[in-house]
Write a structure and sequence with these properties.
Chain lengths: 300, 300, 300, 300
């Protein structure tokens, strides 16, 4: 119903960025992960999210990631590429490049070193929206890892820009999502992050989730989404509780480490997070293995 | 179902603490508020929660508050009195006094000036539990206003003390509640705070909510609880969205100010928060009025 | 020079609060500590500072502490009693009581549960100043442990109240002290805390220090003050470096624990911090012992 | 004395990064600023510090900045180039490039998106040190703007790597510098940041300061350094107080904005901070102007 007004919805995994020992993006592995997820029924793909280690990749590496995902997807599901920068100049160049490659939209993140007044934060997101229009923009905010948070009044102002259409709020504050929905309904669709209980976000009117865990439990995530869309909330919640162990592992481990560990257990050689991030330990591998087995995403 | 294992459940408002110009607790007004809430169908009452300004009251004032509430309630609903202190000695004396007055349980808060190692936090809550046993204890944690947070591993350990039976987690992190439920199911029942979407907390298995807003929207809160208990989630959510404006007002204004403003608009002369807390302004009064009218808790 | 305009100056230790097993203030021990410090040459005494566990004492215990210190001091040095509360009512009652007991001034702390707008913070300190006028008030701010910080513009406004004469800023930010001096020179005298390098604070124009460590290194502190007053900065710094180990111990241990451990090593039976604060461990005792021996405040 | 063991010392300004409308580094203006500072007597130059907007520049822009500064300096004073990255790979490539250009040392900053365990922070700085050995490395830490802080135990471990020789600690905590000196004396030399009172840091044994304000008050900074080296502390402090207004302006404005405003007032067309950082306003320009006039760095 609400989702009908919005192009993007459902389970949209944050893809990992596999990098070879020589520093190149491992395109065959990344393409295989994309095909695997599409086969599992996901509704879109997001390269260069936080789990995708965008903050650890060079411009060239980022370009190779998006290129690979667009090619592997071949239009079967929308690709929403992450754009992140400290300057408007860099952000709009990234956005234009991904637009020209054929993405369906971009997810925009503002990085910052010095604090910024709100109207300059607004200028940053407006410039990205203008660059990719009419393609839609997903606002991304994560107060845990980013230096600039987007307050509700600013989100409300940005929601009046026609192609700023979505927000992924990676705070843990589900009430804030309801406030955003109450103020921006119809203009801004809300996606959950892995720190939210996705069933709860669907119940309040969310469109789906954009998050790392769906990479390693894609079929279960699609099942959960289908139960939510059918408004079978109690069944959804029962499945959600089984899946929550995966989210808990993501909260305890490095996000990129958790997704890379899970995919390696499932046969995709995506390697480790980029140093100095810690390599996945045997203990971490075991923790991910147990969580996957417990929800049927890996044979015990 | 889950609630059957637990004595406390439902809508348990945080009561205000009306204080006269001379510094005495205004017992008639407080008793009238209690009777009004019981008539509206609430399932319990909590004197000396955060909204009840426990942090601003002397020992004598606190005693008068609990005494008044126990008398006014006359056993019709359980009274769960707030206990808060920096020392074990003060906390256990408060707890013993309220136990002797006939409360049904206590809600325990740890205040602190210096940081505390986890095992000393554990000692504090254990001592309160021992003092009131077999009466049940509700753990209270609010990382926004308190200097000591209760981590999940500590909550899990405390859940093994037989009469530590409930937690009210006033963080905004609903996912944390699910983690607590997953780890302590059957031993710890979970109550939502005003920063949570109560319907979402009920969906994941919560028992109800202990919070300030229910003081000024008691009938609507009971209706919402009934819909949740009947697992009519979509109807519950529709009501929740109308009520959310009240929670938003509580987040913007001083909590004690918001509840006192609402009750004054509803005819209870509970006065202002204790100075130096700001008195309720006309603008604040209007904001509360609009929120109450919008959800049918006040005539427009 | 600058100090001449101000009544208080020099080394003003924060006193511990010894409490017996029955919960009474141990007056003989506290009086003995006072006399010991006065013999060592300190320039004033502060009961009910943070190190004095004001946040852990009842009203009656606080009263007994101040009474004991005023009597033991018998006018030989100024007594500056700590006043701390969440309400104006409690703060002004404390302040009036201590004034009537004969203190030379009060040190005012604002505790808070909910955030406060700046003008209400101002109201709190103004009310205390009015209560004790013409006795001087020392503003106390400690952003690490308190919920309300005093910003420089507010300090500047408060400095225009005639008997608000001093500030003890327990932030670690020495540059902030210089900013306060630049803006409020002649109206507000600045005292260092144990987190500051006192020699540096004296160099920029400070009056002395109000802090816990001076309780256990009083003679060395007085020597350091004398070197600073004589503007023999290099000699002062050489002594400061030897003393810094004591400050480091205070930063690592619980403040109240460190001062109580040191005094016990020096023969004063002041006991442990109030539970649930941890008792001083053998390891903590050793750490304090080594720091005291290293600067000549204890025989090895 | 202490400084004799160390190659770097004195006033080492953080250079701005002037960027043309087309996004190129304005090499002639940057070279002119370098020559102006060398003429004023500064003891070194730091391109790509925080004030130099390293976080807002592309790899190519960073390379152009260091190249320009090395050429303009022509060996007359040491050039210490900022290296900052989220990955070891990017950091060591930057470091190798600047080493090959002929810098005298590097100042190493760790940026991060996800939290890092301490041993991985250690790996990052060790890798940079190994890359540039035997050139010296300055550790840089700024808890206000960076996601990873360097704790004292880690600094102590890193100080045992032979060419990790200096630290610039941009916390405001001067006592922490004394702790570092006490633990790492002779191995790690300490530089002050603009948030410290430099005279105080010199008094405790610091080597000088690496900071933005010296760019716009270079002669006064050199005078202050000379007074400190001559141990004429009271005269130094008198000059310091006149200069402190400049530091206060840096704390109130965007750092890059303050240094760019000051240089423009002094005739260097360095432009504005990179968008979305705010352009310098007329009010900000006036504030910088007043601060410069007050300390004799600009004609009124």
């Amino acid at each position: 119903m609400m989702a009908d007004a919005f192009e993007f919805h459902g389970v949209i995994p944050y893809l990992p960025s596999p990098v070879t020992a020589k520093g190149a993006i491992d395109r065959p592995v990344l393409a295989a992960v994309c095909r695997h997820l599409i086969d599992a029924g996901v509704h879109g793909l997001t390269p260069l999210g936080s789990t995708g280690e965008f903050a650890y990749l060079s411009e060239d590496q980022r370009t190779a990631v998006v290129e690979t995902v667009v090619e592997a997807t071949a239009g079967s599901v929308p690709v929403i590429a992450g754009v992140a920068a400290t300057t408007i100049d860099s952000a709009t160049r990234q956005a234009a490049r991904y637009r020209d490659m054929g993405v369906a939209g971009v997810m925009a993140t503002l990085d910052a070193y010095f604090p910024l007044p709100e109207e300059r934060v607004e200028a940053y997101f407006s410039a990205i929206a203008e660059t990719v229009a009419p393609l839609p923009v997903v606002l991304y905010t994560n107060p845990s890892f980013q230096r600039v948070d987007l307050g509700v009044p600013l989100i409300e102002r940005l929601s009046n820009i026609p192609n700023i259409r979505y927000i992924k709020d990676a705070s843990t504050n589900t009430g804030r999502l309801l406030t955003i929905l109450n103020r921006c309904e119809g203009r801004i669709g809300v996606f959950a992050a892995s720190s939210h209980i996705t069933t709860a976000v669907m119940l309040i009117g969310g469109l789906g989730w954009m998050a790392g865990p769906s990479c390693i439990v894609p079929r279960q995530s699609v099942d959960l989404y289908d139960l939510c869309r059918a408004r079978r909330w109690d069944e959804a919640m029962a499945l959600q509780r089984r899946l929550w162990g995966v989210n808990e592992v993501f909260q305890r481990l490095n996000l990129a480490g958790a997704v890379k560990a899970g995919l390696r257990l499932q046969g995709f050689e995506v390697g480790d997070p980029l140093p100095p991030q810690p390599a996945v330990t045997e203990a971490g591998m075991d923790e991910v293995r147990r969580a996957l087995v417990a929800c049927g995403a890996l044979h015990g």
